[in-house]
Amino acid sequence: MKRKLSFILLALMQLLLMCSGSLAQQTVSIGDSKAVLLRPSDPKASVILMPGGDGRIGVGVGGTITKELNNQLVRTRMSYFQRGFAVLIVDADVDLAQAVQFIAEIKRPVTVIATSRGTLRAARGIADGARPDALVLTSGFLTNESGGRENVANILGTPRDLPHTLVIHHRHDGCHWTSPAGVDPFIHWAAGRARVEWLDGGIASGNPCKARAYHGFNGLDEQVVSLAAGFH
What we know:
Elements: H1 2-20, E1 25-30, E2 33-38, E3 45-50, H2 72-75, H3 77-82, E4 85-90, H4 96-104, E5 110-115, H5 118-127, E6 134-138, H6 152-156, E7 164-170, H7 183-189, E8 194-199, H8 221-229
Parallel strand pairs: 3-4, 3-5, 5-6, 6-7, 7-8
Antiparallel strand pairs: 1-2, 2-4
């Protein structure tokens, strides 16, 4: 019951925040893809949010999002906006280089923040030429030791193109693709271009690879946002 109440309260808070920022929230086109833009009147920097799962957020009219609403980056999007960031929440098929160029015209520096499978899409975008000023990888598919050969290090091949990078990872992430064992090898592979912030605590519930588990930083949203927003 307490868990259900906490998620109801979270949904109500997000609804109130969305209403307060509705005039700044809009649907935009990035090439052939749709995205949601949250634009404060005087942004101090920009972030691109790349959700996990299949990455399809169901962009509707007026900046609405209909899918992946509980994904950690989707559910905290207004927290970045409230901190003064221009926020671009992208769909799975976005051309990341175009997305970086689009929001850079609003305000630099541009930080890409990706979570779970979104970290793979971020890596592919960077491998294809996207050049954000900074990169934040949360619950990432980082190295072979993370649990599979499809990972950031293998996609990039070399850390040469890796931006200034922050890894945010839960010490007890139980997802078999994002094992904490993959973090230290990634930091070593990055050759000075990445550092890690470990989180602990929170709530673990249900599928260990989903948003309500440690993997999704359940109960730790403000800590994740504070770390990511402070890195650029």
